[in-house]
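Bug report (template v2)

What were you trying to do?
Predict the complex of my protein with inosinic acid.

What happened?
Run completed; filing so the output is reviewed.

Input:
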Amino acid sequence: MILVTHNQHKFLEYEEIFLRSKIELEWYNYEYPELQSDNLKEIVEFSLKHVSRILNRPFFLEDTGLFIDSLGGFPGPYSSYVQEKIGNMGILRLLEGISNRNARFISLIGYFDGKNFYYFDGTLEGSISYSIRGKNGFGYDPIFIPEKYDKTLAEMSIQEKNSISHRRRALDKLLGYIKNSMESIK
Ligand code: IMP
């Protein structure tokens, strides 16, 4: 199975999950153009179309957003841009004095089977911390506390993050789909 991403952290997380499956993961390190849109599916569809023209074989890619309730879902699909411009400190500043810190990560995997496009989503509910905590992970991990936990994703090992993450949940759906479609061919 080919994963297309320019993000090494994402690859390492997927690699750790694939280690426990019988499927081999191949990393195609490529920075594809991303559509600016407020719809994750449109962003993923655009990327799938672009990459499928270059890689003429099955692959998957993924787009993730952090959606903060009290900011009307911001940064959402603009998460990359916001992380780059204001970072985690910027998010904490935007939330100063705000007690509703509920947020969620949503990952959307786009899969190309050589012919058609398929979409699989995964969500992780949680809240935004009051300070930056932890050194593991990447992106918004140091300010995101998953529901039912009292530590941030950046205070978890990759194994622990992968046991609950948005990415893992989306991938489970993709792997379930692939398993089913292989069984129906048999
Ligand atoms: P993209 O999916 O690569 O477009 O990522 C959007 C933004 O969200 C980037 O700034 C990433 O660093 C961040 N991001 C994506 N996945 C995660 C995650 O699992 N934890 C924390 N931040 C993430």
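What did the reviewer find?
The beta strands are 2-5, 26-29, 59-68, 75-76, 102-112, 117-128, 144-146. Residues 2-185 form a domain with the Maf protein fold (CATH 3.90.950.10).
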